[in-house]
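YM 10:42: Acyloxyacyl hydrolase sequence, as discussed on the call
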Amino acid sequence: MPMPRFLTARRLASATALAALLGSPAVAQSLDFSVGRSMRGPSEGTIFATLEYHAPASFVSGGWSGGWAGALRVSDDGDGWIGAGYALEYDLGANWYAQGSFMPGYYSAGGTALGHSVEFRTLIGVGYRFDALSSVDLTLDHMSNAGLGSSNPGIEILSIGYNRRF
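YM 10:58: structure's back
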């Protein structure tokens, strides 16, 4: 029995749309590793290592792209933080880019008490792309409990990182 014409057209349209979506260039996800040092606050001089995952961009417009991200950070004095939020990137041209992110997260104090287990991380930075898959960046971030605790000393961390897209 022949298939009704509208079902064939619908299948053809669906297959075409799926092929277009799968064949479209996508902004890649990335895994980022950075090492930094706290610049001021109760943990001044502490060394931090951070691993971040950036999901594929959920929006791209002009030179801007943005998407969800998650991060895990540990310090040489036993502090730990895990968070998730939104990250933005702006293409500055000639392989340079600016970045920023906001991530609330859970903080476990080792040697540095920041006043609460909920800490918010804001980050700004500038980076250089070697090619489509790898880049380095210099970032400055601030972690604070935004007044949730009776004490809110906050910390600033200057980091250098390597990013790998896949």
